[in-house]
Amino acid sequence: MRTKIFFDTEFTGLHQKTTLISIGMVSKCGKEFYAEFNDYDRNQVDDWIQQNVISNLHHPDGDFRVYIESEENSEGMPANIKVYGNSEEIKFFLKKWLSQFEEVEMWSDCLAYDWVLFNSIFGDAFKIPENFHYIPFDICTLFRIKKINPDISREKFAGINSERSKEKHNALHDAKVIKKCYKKLMKL
Fold first, then answer.
1. What CATH number belongs to 2-187?
2. In sequence order, what are the beta bridge partners of 67?
3. I need a labelling partner for 127 at 20 to 30 A (CA). Which of 15, 116, 117, 153 fits?
4. What is the pLDDT of residues 108-120, one digit of tens each?
């Protein structure tokens, strides 16, 4: 059975040489992975990225740390992991976290950059974990299919109040919003 994982990335800009700042994932069953990269290209950070993305990081200093936030299951796998470090360190813990799922189906929002950047963590699309379904899915398309304007506020649609939406552009928060939107859309 495929496990749906809802994910989001934050990165240094909408251009070909962008670099990852953070990634957040939440599985359909509620397990979470969150990582902040300390090796993103700081020269690409403009005022908007600084004010809306960097300011929402949990550890903007980027020191390497790993936080296991829940008890390990019978296979020794923690349900929730937070990592702050470089790309290689994050890749190690991301692979470990993803290995607990038999088969994975990825969902994002406007996933063009998210999917390419996710693949770049592993080197390229041919090196992503074998338990991944090779086609990612986009919540924007699901909005369109359900005849809802894909430009709708995700927080408003998901029923998240405006005070909590200040977390917008934090990858884990946004992944949780994508999951809530998906669940609501599937009931329509």
1. 3.30.420.10
2. 82
3. 15
4. 999 999 999 999 9
